[in-house]
Recover the amino acids of this structure.
């Protein structure tokens, strides 16, 4: 029994060392870190235990990861939308509520409006002229306030 406990502790220490090296290289989220640990041969149960400890100590934080990831992609040439951020974060294993919280925190009124303008620049002219353009912007996750601000200014097609 004692030998099993020692072996478990040794495996946890090994897994934590790997996790800390990964964290030192780049911000991690809990889901992707679990995948990376398992790819390195760490038992999924041990990976969950180590990740739980790292979360408790705030060495990894999914919301912090999401906020930093969004900020890093605000200047992307693709001109992302709030929906694109949400879907992309969910693909990275960030739960929907954490993703929404991060999007709302990072995209204050001015940041969202700037993103909206950039997004609209990338939309083809034909789409801009349809009566459903407002609906498309809403579907992409832009707030009514940002959309109304755009249409209430000199921006007409």
């Amino acid at each position: 029994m004692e030998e099993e406990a020692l072996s478990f502790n040794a495996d946890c220490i090994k897994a934590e060392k790997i996790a800390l090296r990964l964290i030192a290289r780049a911000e991690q989220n809990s889901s992707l870190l679990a995948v990376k640990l398992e790819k390195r041969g760490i038992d999924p149960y041990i990976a969950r235990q180590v990740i739980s400890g790292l979360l408790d100590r705030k060495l990894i934080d999914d919301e912090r990861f999401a906020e930093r990831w969004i900020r890093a992609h605000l200047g992307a040439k693709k001109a992302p939308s709030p929906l694109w951020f949400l879907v992309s974060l969910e693909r990275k294993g960030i739960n929907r509520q954490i993703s929404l919280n991060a999007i709302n925190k990072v995209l204050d009124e001015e940041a969202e409006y700037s993103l909206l303008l950039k997004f609209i620049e990338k939309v083809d002219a034909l789409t801009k002229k349809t009566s459903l353009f407002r609906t498309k912007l809403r579907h992409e996750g832009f707030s009514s306030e940002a959309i109304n601000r755009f249409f209430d200014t000199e921006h007409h097609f």
About this structure: Residues 1-60 form a domain with the Arc Repressor Mutant, subunit A fold (CATH 1.10.10.10). The mean pLDDT is 92. The chain has ten helices and no strands.
